[in-house]
Write a structure and sequence with these properties.
301 residues, Rossmann fold, 8-stranded mixed sheet, 8 strands, 38% helix, globular
Length: 301
């Protein structure tokens, strides 16, 4: 009874925090079941020499009984200024429970760095995953990238602009598919901090994902919430239109009841689900795994 009361209290605090925008507090509370479940987590693994170049790896409980699992590398959001990997065990658990190894990297942020450093950190995290995930029962031949908000922007650039992974001797073909949640893929910075992060204006095309679309990128699934007041729908519309124009592989899903934060808080244990995000992304990944197993070539640079 005491445990149930504590869990209910945590839930109420987290609901209040999330709904008021204090997502860090809410997400920490949301991770309580993951902590209690004994979810196997390898913490603070260095993928580079900088303090923020650390990642966590989550693996299924029966990993020792399997040869390997498909891999999801998840980049969290936070306006390129906030967030950390310790906020997201709840998300990792959703996919680990479905048979994935999940990698969640930290990356350097503004004001410590500006664009494109955080994307370069993302590329370095992917390179680490390709080279080391076998040691954690992951299959680097079935590696997917997923991101929310600023993290979706980072992930999409890694899939679209081959220069980032080429710096590590890799091509975008190592990414078998990209799933983006509410990503700002094609926008013009208007706030002062965003101008500082991405400016001067002549550099804006380099931070715009559509700039690099040629049609041979990894398949993309672009998800957006109809109540998103932070990242406009034009971002997925412009990116999907460009991919289609170039005969690439893209699909989009719009969830009318979802706001910006909802796209990740929807996975929290105590909140009623308003959209089948985990189901839809898993179906997308599984379809690509099936194509890989059938010997089909997944497109990429």
């Amino acid at each position: 009874m005491e445990t149930a009361i504590k869990l209910t209290t945590f839930a109420l605090i987290a609901v209040s925090a999330i709904s008021s925008g204090c997502t860090q507090i809410g997400l920490k509370t949301a991770n309580l079941p993951a902590q209690l479940s004994g979810l196997e987590r390898f913490e603070d693994i260095a993928y580079g020499t900088e303090a923020q170049q650390r990642l966590d790896v989550y693996i299924p409980e029966d990993a020792a009984n399997q040869s390997s699992y498909p891999v999801i590398v998840f980049f969290y959001g936070g306006r390129w200024t906030d967030g950390n990997k310790d906020m997201y065990p709840f998300l990792a658990q959703k996919y680990v429970d479905r048979g994935y190894v999940v990698v969640i990297p930290d990356y350097r942020k503004y004001p410590e760095v500006t664009f494109p450093t955080f994307v370069e950190d993302g590329a370095q995290a992917i390179a680490w995953t390709v080279n080391h995930i076998r040691s954690y029962q992951g299959n680097e031949q079935q590696m997917f990238v997923m991101g929310h908000s600023a993290g979706a922007h980072i992930g999409a650039l890694l899939a679209a602009n081959p220069e980032y992974l080429a710096a590590h001797g890799l091509s975008t073909q190592v990414i078998k598919g990209f799933a983006g949640l509410s990503g700002p893929y094609d926008f013009t910075p208007e706030d002062d901090d965003l101008k500082d992060i991405f400016g001067p204006p002549e550099r804006y095309p380099q931070m715009t994902v559509t700039t690099f679309i040629e049609g041979n990128e990894p398949p993309m699934l672009l998800l957006w919430g109809g109540k998103d007041a932070l990242v406009g729908r034009q971002n997925i519309d412009r990116l999907s239109a460009k991919i289609e124009q170039q005969n690439g592989q893209v699909s989009t899903k719009i969830y009318p009841a979802m706001g910006h934060v909802d796209m990740v808080s929807n996975m929290v244990w105590f909140l009623p689900s308003k959209a089948p995000i985990v189901d839809d992304t898993q179906q997308f990944f599984n379809h690509l795994i099936k194509d890989t197993n059938n010997g089909k070539v997944i497109s990429g640079h």
